[in-house]
Amino acid sequence: MEIRTRNRVIAFRVTPAERRKIEAKVRQSGLRQQEYLLHAALETPIHVVEDLKPLLGELRAWGRNLNQLTVLAHQGHIESANLQEATEMLGRVYEAVNRLLTEEGQVVTHSDVQLHP
Length: 117
Prior knowledge:
Elements: H1 16-29, H2 33-41, H3 52-74, H4 84-104, E1 108-110, E2 113-115
Antiparallel strand pairs: 1-2
Helix pairs in contact: 3-4
């Protein structure tokens, strides 16, 4: 496998307004500036889906709840849990993410989360 070395620098000048606009788009994408500019320059589609944020928050909350249940089970405090509500919620989130992916395009990026179809 070939090791990829980035040893060339590309620098360009922008106005303060252009810089603010670029920085805002980079922040919104959740990518590092180099990653964002490489994607943009190499014509890789960059789609930011704001509607994904609440879904990710919901998933994190359910993940914490499941971790707490796992700890309680390992400690012997509970023997079983009704996870029907969690299963139904995960199904709804899965369907919502799939809808967003279908509506917005091929690549959805938010923070450290990248979903590729």
